[in-house]
Amino acid sequence: MGNIFFTKFETPFETIPFPSINEVDYLPALKQSITKAKEEIEAIKNSSERETFYNVIEANQKVDRDMNTVVSSFFNLHYANTNDEMAKIAQELSPMLAEFSNDILLDAELFSKVRKVYDEKDKLNLDPEELRLLEKNYKEFVRNGALLNDSQKDELREIDKKLSKLTITFSENVLKETNGYELFLSEKSELAGLPEDLIEAAADAATEKEMEGKWLFTLHFPSYVPFMTYSENREKREEMYKAYTSRGMKGNEFDNSQNVKDITSLRYERARLLGYKSHADFVLEERMAKTPDQVFDFLKDLLSHSKEAGLRDVKEVSDFSKENGGPEEIKPWDYSFWAEKLKKARYDLDDEILKPYFKVENCLDGIFSLAEKLYDLKFKERKDIPLYHEDVKTFEVKTPDGKHVGVFYTDLYARPSKQNGAWMTSFREQFKEKDKDVRPHVSIVCNFTKPTETRPSLLTFGELTTLFHEFGHALHNLLSDCKYESLSGSNVYWDFVELPSQIHENWASEKECLDTFAVHHETGEKIPSELVEKIVKSKTFQEGRATLRQIGFALLDMAWHSGDPRNVDSVQNFEREATAETEVLPRVEGSGMTCAFGHIFSGGYSAGYYSYKWAEVLDADAFSAFKEKGIFNKEVATLFKDNILSKGGSEDPMVLYKKFRGKEPDSKALLERAGLV
Questions:
Q1: Per the residue annotation, which of 130, 470, 498, 575 is the catalytic one?
Q2: 480 within 8 A of 489, measured Cβ to Cβ
Q3: Is there a catalytic annotation at residue 92?
Q4: Please, what are the domains in the chain?
């Protein structure tokens, strides 16, 4: 019997037939797809035809399509619905992928053909997207060692193989540490201050663990965040905080300290081997911010505008705590609790007031309504598309005249088999071949509280903005209109990729948008205007401290990646030195963020975490165009769709931005929105 990955999927829109795939299918499928890709590479190399853009660059673009189906299927499940067997497969599969990538990018004969086309680029009369693909393809070879000698290429292969294993191990350790902590409470008095729905969810979680009559709290976001925000049990808040902030650094079998040193050292050595000063120099060559100096200047400018505000924010919370019977010195595990109380006192607003208006199903209707009003998209649920978990839902996306746009998956609820956080991912990228426009299959994955038979899933305002954020990423992929999959959708510079996501967060606090979906789940009453006004007023609440926190993450990332990390002795001391300027709360021994910082050690954000704030500058400036003409203004929305969302990486991002906005972005819009000027 043949491997299921090598038969045409007899499913709607050729979606992945998850229930028909067994774990044992993945490795053989990957091996077979690698063999097939290598045969196609050999055909390109052995062709006696004169090298052209089409028989070298375009042909090279197509060789790994089968492999990408296997890889996207596996890794999307590994992050969203993993188990021990998947973890074992990942440890085998990742080095194979790294080796295959190196086999291609270090192939001297193939590079010779690419180089011949590249050297002729000015004479080839290519359109902008073709030229972009050619330049990207050539750079990929050079940036992955094509110009190295044979012994250097061997060294690079060894580094990449090690890195592929280390990054997988890093993320698995974080997940195991997260899953390994359980706080069982036995007395009702210990639940003081906690929201009713959290208490119910904790009781359900305890029952699942056969601990009937108790309440279970974990380090997964839907449990951890509200516990830290509302629990009056200071001792347990401290315990939870220390458990969360010591993940990966407890000196046990899941300790990531050595992994961090190894990953950063290998990245540094790799960059030096390729002729770059540091890993950050290597990464930033392909970013809007071109150099580490430019990133540091950007972060220092933000720091200069936010440090005073951050100190003021902490003093406000500390003073409020003292005035209301709280501790004399506010500790990190007190901060969310007392900040929430201050917010409630100042604005008469907290998540418990807002959550009844944000039922998950209604919020989904809200993002769909937004997409229809702005971009003429319609979402219709499909029950015939195969799923990988019962929590997943699928939707067909169409234009008003019925044209198929893509398939959209949602996987919204937390479970132990899923990584923490929220993300957008693709099972298939958009591209065009001959006369066919192959449409994308896109998914958003979140960690919201799961509904029960008696209780709906109600989102906090923060979770609502997360939903809008990930949906923005999804729209970037769904609306893609590019020729080549490696340039389509969100395949753009990493400091540009957050623009489509972050701009869509803005609609989550606009009354005109909220009126389309935000109704009380029991009474059906629309969210009152005064509540929306309070949301808007409270958006700058504690923004100084929040900005400092993000700058701290970005500076830590740059510290690890802009110098030589090989002589770092203590991970914790290194972190403290890197983030000292942004710290406004007392340090806690044994706590840190490095060893659980998945974005930079197992995700794609190494030397790129600054891009969240960079993209905020873009999104604040871009959204001001909507504010000027109306948040559902079709003219502005069409400009945004035609020049940003549909273009992927087919042109330089600043060129695209200026086509949309008519000018370069201005950071003043962000500073004003954040209340920092």
A1: 470
A2: yes
A3: no
A4: 4-105+107-147 (1.20.1050.40), 181-245 (no CATH), 356-539 (1.10.1370.40)
